[in-house]
């Protein structure tokens, strides 16, 4: 009986020690022990580059892919990086494509290059609209103005009924892109809804703006405000 008790106590102590060791490990190590390095590195890479690609740690993302042992998964890892980063740095995207081995026939360098050499112009234009609206919500007028052509500045900065960054109360709080239309190869039309709120009182109204975005010198800019709706109270 005493021997059985000792065995149970010993096993209990070992269990407590193992649990302590397990929780002392960082999340990445625990993930690798359960799922393996290939899967965990891939998801760690996605966390690294997906949240804010322009400020993400590109070298860390590349290293995570390079440490993977499964070649097809590694190739997919590099292709994912290329797809995300080419919107702001084509050279880095090419660097990721260069790492692809292409042993399985699914991923290949040439296919990767085609992806990053044919950017989605509509997505580029939409990103500019979203950055422009976010700058207005943050009341960062200089940054918001940087997205405007001279024509659009003339509309926003001359007319008192078209505030660029809003007032203290009510102030711009959030937005949603309602419609997107491609007019031609260099022009897009967006309809955006902007919500206003009073501090501590929540959303009180909204209005819609219809904007034209044009491509100038390989850069998209807000060129004109076609229409601004009346304010709709909620």
First-residue to last-residue Cα separation = 75 Å
Uncertain spans: none
Number of strands: 5
Please name the CATH topology of the largest domain: Nuclear Transport Factor 2, Chain: A
Instruction: State mean pLDDT (0 to 100 scale).
Output: 82
What's the short story on this structure?
With 234 residues, the chain is α+β, with helices and mostly antiparallel strands. 51% of the residues lie in helices and 23% in strands.
Descriptive report:
By secondary structure, the protein is α+β, with helices and mostly antiparallel strands. It has ten helices and five strands, in the order H-H-H-H-H-H-H-H-H-H-E-E-E-E-E. The chain has helices spanning 2-24, 27-35, 37-50, 58-66, 71-85, 90-98, 109-117, 121-137, 141-145, 150-158, and strands at residues 171-184, 187-198, 202-216, 219-228, 232-233. Strands 1, 2, 3, 4 and 5 form a five-stranded antiparallel beta sheet that branches. A hairpin with a 3-residue loop joins strand 2 (187-198) and strand 3 (202-216). The longest helix has 23 residues, at 2-24. It is flat.
């Amino acid at each position: 009986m005493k021997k059985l008790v000792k065995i149970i106590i010993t096993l209990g102590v070992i269990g407590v020690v193992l649990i302590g060791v397990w929780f002392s490990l960082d999340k990445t190590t625990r993930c690798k022990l359960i799922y393996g390095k290939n899967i965990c590195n891939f998801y760690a890479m996605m966390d690294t580059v997906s949240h804010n690609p322009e400020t993400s740690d590109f070298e860390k993302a590349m290293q995570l892919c390079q440490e993977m042992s499964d070649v097809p998964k590694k190739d997919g890892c590099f292709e994912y990086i290329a797809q995300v980063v080419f919107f702001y740095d084509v050279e880095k995207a090419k660097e990721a494509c260069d790492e692809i081995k292409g042993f399985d026939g699914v991923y290949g360098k040439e296919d990767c290059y085609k992806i990053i050499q044919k950017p989605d112009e509509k997505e580029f234009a939409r990103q500019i609209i979203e950055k422009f609206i976010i700058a207005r919500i943050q009341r960062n007028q200089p940054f918001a103005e940087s997205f405007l052509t001279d024509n659009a500045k003339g509309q926003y900065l001359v007319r008192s009924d078209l505030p660029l960054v809003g007032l203290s109360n009510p102030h711009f709080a959030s937005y949603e892109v309602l419609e997107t239309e491609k007019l031609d190869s260099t022009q897009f039309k967006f309809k955006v809804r902007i919500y206003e709120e009073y501090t501590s009182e929540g959303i009180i109204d909204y209005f819609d703006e219809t904007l034209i975005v044009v491509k100038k010198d390989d850069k998209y800019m807000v060129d004109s405000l076609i229409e601004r709706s009346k304010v709709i109270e909620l």
